[in-house]
TrEMBL record:
Gene3D superfamilies: Aspartate Aminotransferase, domain 1, Orn/Lys/Arg decarboxylase, C-terminal domain, Type I PLP-dependent aspartate aminotransferase-like (Major domain)
Family annotation (InterPro entries): Orn/lys/arg_de-COase, Orn/Lys/Arg_deCO2ase_major_dom, Prn/Lys/Arg_de-COase_C, Prn/Lys/Arg_de-COase_C_sf, PyrdxlP-dep_Trfase, PyrdxlP-dep_Trfase_major, PyrdxlP-dep_Trfase_small
Lineage of the species this protein comes from: Bacteria, Pseudomonadati, Pseudomonadota, Gammaproteobacteria, Orbales
Organism: Orbus hercynius
PANTHER family found in the cross-reference section: BIODEGRADATIVE ARGININE DECARBOXYLASE, CONSTITUTIVE ORNITHINE DECARBOXYLASE
Family classification: Belongs to the Orn/Lys/Arg decarboxylase class-I family.
A GO CC term assigned to this protein in UniProt: cytosol
GO biological process: L-arginine catabolic process
Protein name as annotated: L-lysine decarboxylase
Alphabetized UniProt keyword annotations: Decarboxylase, Lyase, Pyridoxal phosphate
GO MF, one annotated term: arginine decarboxylase activity
Orn/Lys/Arg decarboxylase C-terminal domain segment(s): 412-541
Domain Orn/Lys/Arg decarboxylases family 1 pyridoxal-P attachment site: 3-387
Length: 553
């Protein structure tokens, strides 16, 4: 206990030295009348939200102090009444699944496409049509015509939708665009028509858009925003807001509002776009001049024009077999780099460099990857030339280290510490090829395709499943034995970050690729310490066996 207190004391001193006295004094009382109360949207808070609404082309905007997950739940609590049916993007954030566990609704799912790298290409146009929604309602128990839809925009692979098509086509009262990664869409013309708040009102529909303020804008991590365009009962909506929000103000949100109002033009965002495009060009140049290998940027051949680049059927740089024209667009700020090992058709090559190894190397050098696939790395470009240069230099350093085939203990000390005996004499090429051959042996990309093809059977809604969890009607089950059982939890592997199994879904023989895919992800970690799979809903028990929670039968 003494040791813990000493460590806490050291940490406190560190925080004081780092932040200084003014930061510690900046926490203010909610009783300060000059600030107003966030829950009744008065005083400075009211003015900040009005400023944000005007700036983001919304009719109403709300500052959320508990993050994007809370923003999503606030919208859902209001727009998804108990007993209703809602449309859900299967590529949803886990907060949407949590919303469905809290609210007694019946979901019907729209499914995104994907390519060989596991990138999500969005939901095809046909899935939004009335005929397709009717077919989903007919085959879903207790489903009625949906009242609300939740769509992820942009996708986790940095692709925007033509939101005008979705707004016109989806026959629902309201649509919620979960736009966590893209709060900057109103600040540059290339995003026009690709965001929830783009354009004017849609007749007889209410459009919601939730955004994480910290992504390219200036705010602390918990800050988020809700934008609304269309009819909404503000008093009732605020009841849901109060359920999930704190009475304590978060000054950074108001500061952000002031900065946005002052600098609401395309200049700053344009800097980020230009920086990202310059980085893409440099990657392409180095790749072409390299005598051996280098990273590839996932992008069209011509990136000279500052734009959101369309995915269409006339070219195959994107790797999607079936793509709708005038539907999906790549955000230039979201840069995905491809590592060697797999071609555009999904064929695994004889040798490869799994992206997880590169991500580990970057992490040990202070660079965090936004999303790691099996052979892809996604970076979000912020307004910072120094970081761009650092990233490029670190990627070139990885190539040098890899080509020289240096020892793990010399170039990745943090990984080495996880199992010094295992990594004692191992070199980086041996590690890369070991993981690559394991992926190739089990046909992992192909399994990933199959795992996302056939959804499990919804035995009960996520809400009903969670009620059983609360009552304790669950049991532990080995992952390999999950077939025939109903999952109590959401099971989501990273990569690709798409829920494979929702609470209340029954895994059948048709879903064996899901089980096999999850087992292989776990196996990679058992072979190579430090590369354990990150799978929400799957954990290792005391016997070293991977298990899940299922409903008791």
């Amino acid at each position: 206990m003494v040791g813990n207190n000493f460590e806490l004391s050291q940490f406190s001193s560190f925080c004081y030295d780092f932040y200084g006295e003014n930061t510690m004094n900046a926490d203010v009382s909610i009783l300060d009348s000059r600030l107003g109360l966030p829950l009744d949207h008065s005083s400075l808070n009211k003015h900040a939200q009005k400023c944000i609404a005007d700036t983001f082309n919304a009719e109403h905007s709300f500052i959320v102090t508990n993050g994007m997950s809370t923003a999503n739940k606030i919208v859902g609590i209001y727009a998804c009444p108990a007993g209703s049916t809602i449309i859900v993007d299967r590529n949803c954030h886990k907060s949407i699944a949590h919303l469905m566990m809290m609210t007694n609704v019946t979901p019907i799912y729209l499914r995104p496409t994907r390519n060989a790298h596991g990138m999500l290409g969005g939901i095809p146009k046909a899935e939004y049509t009335k005929a397709h929604i009717e077919s989903l309602v007919e085959k879903t128990a207790n489903a009625t015509w949906p009242v609300h839809a939740i769509i992820t925009n942009s996708t986790h692979s940095g692709l925007f939708y033509n939101t005008n098509y979705i707004k016109r086509t989806l026959d629902v009262k309201s649509i919620h665009f979960d736009s966590a990664w893209v709060p900057y869409t109103h600040f540059h013309p290339i995003y026009q028509g690709k965001a929830g708040m783009s354009g004017s009102r849609v007749e007889n529909k209410t459009i919601y858009e939730t955004q994480s303020t910290r992504e390219l804008l200036a705010a602390c991590s918990p800050a988020a925003m809700i934008h609304i365009k269309g009819d909404v009962n503000e008093r009732v909506f605020n009841q849901g807001y109060m359920m999930h929000s704190t009475t304590w103000p978060l000054a950074s949100s108001e500061v952000t509002a002031a900065m946005i109002c002052v600098a609401a033009d395309e200049h700053l965002i344009n800097q980020s776009i230009e920086q990202a495009i310059n980085f893409r060009k440099e990657i392409d140049r180095i790749n072409k001049e390299s005598n051996s290998w280098f990273f590839n940027a996932w992008q069209p051949d011509n990136i000279e024009k500052i734009d959101c680049w369309p995915l269409n059927r006339d070219n195959n740089w994107h790797g999607f077999n079936h793509i709708d024209d005038d539907h999906m667009y790549l955000d230039p700020i979201k840069v995905t780099l491809l590592t060697p090992g797999i071609d555009v058709h999904g064929q695994l090559e004889d040798t490869g460099i799994p992206a997880s190894l590169v991500a580990q190397f970057l992490d040990e050098n202070g660079i965090i990857v936004e999303k790691t696939g099996h052979y892809s790395l996604l970076f979000l470009f912020r307004i910072d030339k120094t970081k761009s240069s650092t990233l490029l230099g670190t990627l070139m350093e990885f190539k040098r280290v890899y080509d020289a085939n240096l020892k793990i203990r010399d170039v990745m000390p943090e990984l080495y510490k996880k199992d010094p005996d295992f990594y004692h004499n191992m070199r980086i090429q041996q590690l890369a090829q070991g993981i690559h051959q394991l992926i190739k042996h089990h046909h992992l990309p192909e399994l990933m395709y199959q795992a996302l093809d056939e959804l499990p059977v919804m035995e009960m809604t996520p809400y009903d499943a969670f009620q059983q969890v609360i009552l304790g009607n669950v049991t532990e089950c080995a992952l390999k034995d999950i077939s025939g059982k109903v999952s109590a939890n959401m099971i989501t592997p990273y990569p690709p970050g798409v829920p494979l199994i929702m609470p209340g879904e029954k895994v059948t023989a048709d879903n064996q690729p899901i089980v096999s895919y999850l087992e292989i992800l776990c196996e990679i970690g058992s072979h190579y310490p430090g590369f354990e799979a990150d799978i929400h809903g799957v954990y290792e028990n005391d016997n070293g066996e991977y298990v899940v929670k299922v409903l008791a039968q």
